[in-house]
Amino acid sequence: MAQLLTEAEIKQQLSNLSNWTLEGSKLQLNRTFKNFVQAIEFVNKLVEPAESAGHHPDIEISYNKVKITLTTHDAGGLTQKDFDLAKEISQIT
Fold first, then answer.
1. Nearest to residue 47, comparing CAs of 87, 77, 85, 16?
2. Is residue 49 one of the residues assigned to a domain?
3. Could you say which of 22, 26, 46, 61 would form a disulfide bridge with 71 (CB–CB 3.0 to 4.6 Å)?
């Protein structure tokens, strides 16, 4: 099982991520697209990095809005796996 990060480690890592917020013990990213098709295209681009990492985000889609939430469920909070995947997701356009 992955090890939980400390509050200080979380704050430090979060400072290196643009547009991600801390919501309790979860990382969250909200993206808005021109339309539904672009939103789905973005979500489809998340499949490969999530599968490669063996770590899957929670995803909510509402027309042109996508909310991505990351947490390591089996560890009960944020681990390095969450921040590593967040960095990869941040690079997807």
1. 85
2. yes
3. 26
Q: Is residue 1 part of a domain?
A: no
Range of the domain at 51: 7-90
Phi, psi of 2 (to 5 degrees): -70, 150
Q: Note the pLDDT tens digit of each residue in 17-76.
A: 999 999 999 999 999 999 999 999 999 999 999 999 999 999 999 999 999 999 999 999
- Cα–Cα separations (whole angstroms), residue 66 to 40, 46, 75: 9, 12, 25
Whether 62 is covered by a domain: the verdict is yes
Q: Which of 68, 88, 74 has the alpha carbon at shortest distance from 21?
A: 68
Residue labelled with tokens 């990492």: 53
**If pLDDT is split at 50, 70 and 90, which confidence band does 85 have?**
very high
Is position 68 within any domain?
A: yes
| Count of domains observed in the chain | 1
